## 1
Amino acid sequence: MSTLLEVDGIKKWFGLEREGLFGGERQFVKAVDDISFTINKGETLGLVGESGCGKSTAGRTILRLIEATEGKVVLDGTNLYDLKAKDLKKLRKDMQIVFQDPYASLNPRMKVKDILEEPIKIHTTLTKQQREEKIKQVISDVGLNAMYLERYPHEFSGGQRQRIGIARALVVEPKLIIMDEPVSALDVSVQAQVLNLIQDIQEKYNLTYLFITHNLSVVKHISDRVAVMYLGRIVEIGDKSAFFKEPLHPYSKALISAIPETSQLNRRERVILKGDIPSPVNPPSGCRFHTRCPFAMDKCREVEPALTEIGQDHFVACHLYEVGGEVIGKI
Amino acid sequence: MTQQFAQEIEIKPKKKGVFETDAWKRFKQNKLAVFGAVLLSLFVFVALLAPVLAPYDPYVSQVNELGTYDVHASPSADHLLGTDSLGRDMLSRLIYGARVSLSVAFAAVLIATITGVILGIIAGYYGKWVDTAIMRLTDIVICFPVLFLAISIATILKPSIFNVMIIIGLVSWTTMTRLVRGEVLRIRETEYIEAARAMGQNNLIIMAKHILPNIMAPIVVQATLQTAEAILTESALSFLGVGVQQPVPSWGNMLNEATSILVLQFKPWIWIPAGLAILLTILCINFVGDGLRDALDPKTKKT
């Protein structure tokens, strides 16, 4: 399996207004602070974390919808951050995004047909007739009737709109789609339908997904690998089955223990975290999680742990798994 | 489930004309707005058909049966609104004045709207120093005392209809710019603009196709209300003698004669019609503007 997307140490710091007349040192919101991962072709990487941890910012920074402060993103051999605006526009054909809010992501003044036609017009030289054929094919692939094409977005339900949003990403046949919480705004009954649709089209169009969500059940359903973000950092990344069977990072353990379980037999012990997520302006020293970690040691307050491989393709950033610089394996 | 359901129902694409839209239905319910629209179209109609409707040439002094110029004649069957100090028929001048006053107002608003919308969109969309530069320029223009500026420009250039249009246009785009910038700031952050950028659409098309159609409603309302202001400014300038020049009639310079106490007190037919015309037009435009604001706001659902 070859790598499609390689994210290498990207940072996105948002500068805050200086306080007072002369300010002093400028402060930054470190929304995304040095994250790295790779996604293989045809794979789905689930990116999870609580709200405000920087997962959506990460998605947008990867696509260069917002400019990164630092880092490198390589899509299929091309470093996106080196490209000039003009070349980047051409490459946008290969990477698309589906947004969270289906009510805000479609232009209310455009017919569905025009919404879907726009990306094709930008990126291909197809004739009007070919474009129409393409649109009809894609709209039926996302499970909508071609008769809907003449309608405006406000005439649709949330689930249908999300299908249109997915269709808009599909028409240019991208390699990578970033799914930014595509089902969070939908009804639970519709969520399943849209998730299945997302899986179906992945096969049909040979897509690679970065699936951003805060919902672990969704991740369990859809992704091949899972990355957990906390306060702008990736704390654990690994294969889905390994991750759900045995999460390594205390934060991951807490997240997984929070999934409601219906069966008495499978009841786990709840790991309950104290306090709130700290401010990303002044993240805690050392390990960012130490303020809420039930296993925090002195070392955690001083030294920031690096992502180290513990199991097969299973990385974690936690001092609990090393002694004197040596990785001691699972505990 | 939903898919099958959708396929079973035959969906006819609805072609809606202007008069079937929700906005029109809401507008129709506002009686004042409809009244304003009707009266306003009447004025426009009269202005367009001025040569047909006016009983006399507005530039020619009328001669009475004694063979003298019929100066300051009171309303009669011959001259429904009397004549002015040079013996010209007031009704004809009022009708031709509508032409001048309305076209000056429309042209000025067109200039102001185009300038205001373009600057506002650019400022709002690009942000940063572009925004700062444009908005500070706007602040500066807002600080100009309009009449003083207009009078100085009118004195430097030769006062003429076209100069009046340009002057009013150049001082009144600021409100539009501020309004448009605010709206753009709101729209710019929506996900469909982000989606357009994600698909690699270029900025000009995003502004024209994605942003502009979504902020048309407030622009239309603002332009309408601005027309009333433009008529008022034109009247004021013409009244002061730096706007539309005699012998071309405008509602403003017709009022100029009322500066004489004699006319003001004893010959009200000379200034009441022009004053009333200005009042009614502005009132109607404001009614229409308010009606449009309510009608174009999608949050007010049709009842």
Note: The longest strand of chain A covers residues 3-15.
## 2
Amino acid sequence: MAQITLKNLAHSYLATPKGEQDYALKEMDHVWQDGGAYALLGSSGCGKTTLLNIISGLLKPSQGRVLFGDRDVTEAETAERNIAQVFQFPVVYDTMTVRDNLAFPLRNRGKDAAYIARRVDQIARMIGMEATLDRKARGLTADAKQKISLGRGMVREDVNAILFDEPLTVIDPHMKWELRTQLKQLHREFGHTMIYVTHDQTEALTFADKVVVMYDGRVVQMGTPEELFETPAHTFVGYFIGSPGMNLLPAEIRGSTAHLQGAAVPLGAAYGPITGRTQIGIRPEYAVLTEGDGLPITIRRVEDVGRHRIVRGEVAGQMVSVIAPEGMPVGASLTHVRFTPDRINVYADDWRVAPAGGAA
Amino acid sequence: MDKTQNNKAWFLVLPVLVVVAFSAILPLMTVVNYAVNDTFGNNEFFWQGLVWFEEMVTSSRLHEALGRQILFSAIILAIEVPLGIYIALNMPKKGFWASVCLVLMALPLLIPFNVVGTIWQIFGRVDIGLLGHYLAELGFDYNYVSDPIDAWITVIVMDVWHWTSLVALLCYAGLQSIPNAYYQAARVDQASRWAVFRYIELPKMAGVLLIAVLLRFMDSFMIYTEPFVVTGGGPGNSTTFLSIDLVKMAIGQFDLGPAAAFSIMYFLVILLVSWVFYTVMTNLDKEEGK
């Protein structure tokens, strides 16, 4: 087990990348702490899998180094790195029994038979497949196969890290919860570094201590779920995390006030001069409908999602979502929306701007 | 579930039955007719029963031809199947060179049988053939016309040249269907090259491979044109395989009765072996699914 460091890492699938747009993974420096449970979150095609394959050595990066602890493994083969990886679609060895499938990585590393038998039984219990251990893997259902893949990923105890590439895509929702809980438990028990790629925010937020959000080949923010929610470092994070995502409104920032088409919105802190395209971001959870306080809003639609209602309206020509708590009547008298000042984030060219006072 | 029973549906099969009857069953029946009768022309037949069959079953000439045939098919399969797999494993998976390889591999398959025979007949000649001439230059005593071993080598090399592509292309198709994740998982699991072949590539190729083996067995067991053009079954009888012998008997000696009995048994043997292959194939599948 070791800390994984990525230094000046970048990757392009083209032989001679011409500009930044040719890179699937833009230059990055990143450290994965030993024993951390990370979720790598981002929309499809943002470079998550590329990053994962570089860590596991299935892909050689165009530039930069990969370090496990102090050891430079950039040129090392996957096998040397001693990493486990679970893929999006089940990979099982069809002609082997479930037992042999689970034992395969251990046998290849020459562990002794008694240890293998013990370990395989343990894993089989964990994935709930003791009953089918002696069956051939061929002909099992997709989620049974994926459980075998997961089991094969976890069967080695001495791995440097376990990488999961959207492993629960093919598993049904009920089983998803169970397996995720088991992964979490496994993490607490053995302390493996785990990196879990997903595009499902619920999955990411429930699994990980630290969530790494990627967008367009870049890591845009790494933080606890709370940090991602309260202070998204990039408008993408604001939009991607949360349901519905953060409201973004173009505004001009002067001191501690944002000006939107003539209306003034008080901010929680003062900002220095900002260049570029400025926007304010406010979570729907921190917007309140009022009878006259705040900005005028034209309500277009109300969606009842059970726990609360999502009110969609128009403010200064922009669509805005507001969460109305259960029990609060939404009527014609609510004509304005107030944003909680210290929950407003300011963005310049999509990146969060820290207030001038130096406070976060 | 209960299926609707409607026996009138059988009438829909009738046209096919009629066509098959005229194209296959009736001609086959004339062979059966020759096999159990003796004839001296004039459409006069004399009932012989199983005499021709008895004669053929005990004929040492047929036994020898059968032995040569089995040996030939065994050698062909032993060379072409592993070689085809080896070639398929080493062909480029995509890009320009993959297309080039595919075209080159397909070329021998497109050449008519008697042309293949003629090519090798000339190629191997000591006086004017490129192969024969240079082998002689290099000091090899090579002459497929007079030396049975040389004749065998020539016929086998020719068949390997002609048909290994088929096995390779079928295996290649099987290999192409393996998702990349399997190879990646194998690398993560630290599988050896042999393990990758044994547990990933071979199982995925198994289906097409059995078809390849079946096709190569049937074709090689019925081979006629190429060895006939190259060696004419000689020197002596050394490359006289079953169908060459059959044609000699039927057309050369005009022994229609024995030849008919012979061809029926020949047909049954091929049918039997193919059936065995098929059964083994399907049973293997079932066992795997358990």
Note: The first strand of chain B starts at residue 37 and ends at 39.
